[in-house]
Automatic annotation (TrEMBL):
Regions that span the bilayer: none
InterPro entries: MBLAC1, Metallo-B-lactamas, RibonucZ/Hydroxyglut_hydro
Self-association state and partner proteins as the record states: Homodimer.
Gene Ontology annotations for the cellular component aspect, listed alphabetically: cytosol
Organism: Ceratitis capitata
Protein name (Swiss-Prot/TrEMBL): Metallo-beta-lactamase domain-containing protein 1
């Protein structure tokens, strides 16, 4: 039995900010993450914009010795353009998962994600699973990596969390857009309770503390919808 841990590497840290020259424009790109499982599978989560293919390919090669054909699964936490732009690079992947949609070429899989079941979709046994986390969009998913090098469970959560600051200032995530704010509050607390470390959609990864969990619980309890 292997004693290695599953590796979670942020390839590019995302950002979102107003354009300095045009108040009607936002500048945004997602956090792009590589999972290297202890069983040898390579999973990429959120693939930047369609203009980032060259730099994504370069980083995979220079930092991890990987070519696009070495990626086994592509997961996009939701379908916004800054999260799916370089999917075209990974045509050898077994699955492309975009939100709750799981496909390969013209083949679409009937699975717990597409049926809105609570059961996770396994990518590498229990080590790496995909779960539905609706809120930012109703089809959003998050990726849970157990026994990660970050310690415990690492959650790659897309825009469920914009960045760590939105735990103290929820206006950051609500103003970024949410198709269901009540669901997003529930899922934010759920992921914080499941995870030791979270990688948000547009910022640095962070260690989840009990203080953060308490604040998220307080924010949920202050709303009329308290169902977890």
């Amino acid at each position: 039995m292997t004693t290695r841990r599953n590796e979670v590497h942020v390839l590019f840290t995302g950002y979102s900010r107003p354009d300095s020259n045009d108040s009607s424009v936002m500048r945004a790109n997602c956090t792009c993450t590589l999972i290297k499982t202890r069983h040898g599978r390579n999973i990429i989560v959120d693939t930047l914009t369609a203009w980032d293919g060259e730099r994504l390919t370069q980083v995979l090669q220079s930092e991890h010795g990987l070519q696009p054909q070495d990626i086994n699964v592509v997961v996009c936490t939701h379908g916004h353009s800054d999260h799916i732009g370089c999917n075209y690079l990974f045509r050898e992947a077994q699955w492309h998962i975009v939100g709750a949609c799981v496909s390969h070429r013209d083949k679409y899989l009937d699975c717990p994600l597409t049926r809105e079941d609570s059961e996770p979709f396994q990518l590498c046994g229990d080590d790496v699973t995909v779960v539905r986390t609706p809120g930012h969009t109703l089809s959003c998913v998050s990726v849970l990596v157990r026994d990660s090098i970050q310690g415990g469970v690492a959650g790659i959560c897309g825009d469920l969390f914009e960045r760590v600051e939105d735990i103290i200032d929820p206006s950051i995530w609500t103003e970024a857009g949410s198709e269901d704010t009540n669901s997003q509050r529930r899922q934010r607390l759920r992921m914080a309770e499941l995870c030791n470390y979270i990688i948000p959609g547009h910022g640095q990864g962070f260690v989840v503390t009990d203080q953060m969990r308490a604040l998220l619980r307080q924010q949920l309890d202050s709303t009329s919808d308290r169902k977890i």
